[in-house]
Design a protein that fits this description.
mainly beta; extended; disordered N terminus; six-stranded antiparallel barrel; Immunoglobulin-like
Length: 904
Amino acid sequence: MKVLRNTFILAASLVLVACGGSSSGSFDRGGAAKMSVSAETTSVPAKGQHFVPNPAMDYTIQVNVEFLGSDNRPVPDGTEVNLSSSSSGRGVVAPIDEPESTGGQATSTTSGGTASFWFVSGSNQGEVTLTASGTAPSGDQSSSRLNLNVIEPSDGAARLSIEGPTEIPANKAGASSFLGSPYVAEYRIRYLGPDGEPGIVRLDEDDRHTAQVTISPTRSAMFSTLMDPEFEFAGFDILWGTGPVLVQGGQGIVFVHAQRDPGTVTLSAAAFDIDEDDDQVYSAEIKIDVIDHTEDFLPAQLDFSVSPDPVYIQGSGGSTSKSLSVDVRDSGGNAVPDPEGDGHSYNNVRLQLEAPANSGARLVGTGADGSVSGTDIRVRTLNGVANFALNSGTETGSHRIIATVDRADNNVDNEMTDPLTAETTIQVGDGRLFSLELVQPSINALMVNRAVTDIGGSEEQIIGDNGVPVPPDPDGTYSLTVTVQGVDQVGHPVLPGTVVSFGKIDSPLSETNPSYFVFSGEDGNPSEGGDLFSVLDSPEGFLDDPNAIDESVETGDTLALFGKSIPGNREHEAARSVADVVDDRTVRVSEPFNPNDQSGNIVDDGYVIPWVIGRARMGVIDESATLGDQGRATVQLTYPIHAVGRPTVVWAQSQRTESGGTKTVADVNSIRLPGVAPLELSVTPSTIPGNVATPVLLCLRDALGAPVNQAAINGSLVSGQGIGSLDGDFMPTTTQNATGTDGLGCVETEVKVENMLAESGNSVVLFSVGEATASLSVVAPEAGMLMVEPSNRNDLSPTPQDVNLTLTLLTSGGEPLSGVQLIGSCDGGNGSLSITDAPGVTDEDGETTATVEMDMSICGDGSGEGFPREGICEFTTASGSPVGTFTANGFDLSESGVSPSPCD
């Protein structure tokens, strides 16, 4: 058995040698790494010089090195393998993925246990040995050799060669040609003399050193040549199927232009040596696949990407440059090719800037020839993206940027034939304050303050039953986060350093609930550029009334104007201090009002500006703050918890310097002081009887139990039967009074759900404020009664008779139930009894009517069989309770005993 095994190993070794390779003995002993070298052929025609490998030529072959580990499995991917040539004059090697790195030795890495190389023959003929070596992960070193013969070329192929790509995408769109087009490839025709050096080909009939070049079939590709002043038919745009190509210094260049039809074309060249005694035709050819493809390489999608950072004018102190990019993709969503090829670069995106006149703004980018700038520039993409920048000038406003590409050929340096455009607009600001906006966050906006003096006890916060954390020593105040955002005229953040003042008004308020500011209205008229403010009518009057107990406007009070709410009066959004009270309708302020001339002309719309005059009595707000990098500043509004729900006016104000002077910029907001979420709503009692008006107490508190005043409560009947009302108004509606009317955070309201029937089930009234809810259960009354008048009737006629019925619906207490639809059905038994006029909805007396037709009696045979007859009609509500009945009796009228007989 041992002999047979060794015989097998030896046979395997002999097989490998027959393939051209030998190993260091890895195959003749177990447990070691193994390596072998193979090639598609062992005879390679000599070539005059060491050029870059060209798989289409016979002087280039692929060499594969198989490397197995001691376990007879392929070594891990990425294992390095070295390959060396014993004679660089007879041939050089290069890694398969680095064909330009030719030399006497090369290194490549394995994939699936194989490392691949190129071998390119040299000008010297003879045997050359390729030696492969490497180290396996186990540490074993292994090597193998392959002998190649570099032979004399028999057909002149080594003297004439064609080098270039073997694939070109089909030009399915018929795009025009240009240097660098993805549908045009450059090929070099090389000719060597007998000494292996660049040779000279024979003159043609036009006394030009040319090779004859042919491409076929021309439906898939044609070729052109370089310009030649001595030959009018030479040039990049002149396409040939067959024609002469100038060869100088042993080299000629042709450009293969792909056509619409995919397919394989053959590009061939033939030439004679300059030596007239040499009659051999030297020829070469290359196969080129004009491939179909999903990518069309032409622009179909054009999109801008703009950085979010603001840009400002020169001299503002802010950033004066903004980064942008244009993404260019084909119809398949692939990035268009980089605009370059065969050593040529071109531009494929045109950028135009429309900026305010004389602003000096410009675009800056990179084109085919380097950096470019201006209002109309041409740039090139890299991986489908063209990056550029907008450098601002001295003017603010809109800067329109238009990007254009050519769908025909992805080239904007030549004539534009099928333009595709996209545009974006960049706003350039000046960073000066133009507008202020007050905002409050919706979450984490309220802070529960701790006592300022240490009162001892635990330092750990307490978690309430509702999950809301509470400090161990709350001081009875809340602080609300208030943020102001400042922007310039185009909406960019104001540059840092602007100081903003803050203030608030919370008094005096009316005695009503909900309350309102005593001195407020919608008829304010500030004098444009002056210091007087007047109103059409102030019910209270600004001055004190000596004959009444009332409020009056005081020196030092604040006048707040809501100018933004009236179109064209933005500049009248302001806060001013009252200097003195002129009369019941006029005050003088300490700082003039803005001229309200933002349109260029003073606007005086008269008595139209909403206004409030008052003072701060409940809590404090930080006096000022400085706007930061994002044009924002944050302050705290602090107030006692019993002020939750109180109407308050908050204002922020700063200044803007203009050529005509200084103006104030303000934002004035009307709010109600918030509590800690979530709100909690309760109703007492939680159950009331139906059909009876019953007072209930609704109380609203925040998450920490602070009462919330001046809130109207919504009420709706959400399930069950009946008609609900709240303080006499049909639901859904709100309470007539606000919370705080009947105790802190509480209000009493009268609830009635009428027309509830016995056994109909309970109804539910849902009270709500925002997301806070409370349910009130309304219990159905006990069983009532339904009376039918008349309740029975004898049928004494052999013909049908109508009977009019009155139906009365009463509660168990005998009270009429109105607004209830009644229904009915009849069963005549052996007679006929039916409803001809169905009952309706009960009126305020609980009544409705119905009509039945009875035909219960006949003239029989006198035997009395089947008589008397009885028919019954039942009436009820939709719930099936209560039930009222009507009974009809029928007889054999031949036995009636009356005269004259109804049967005569």
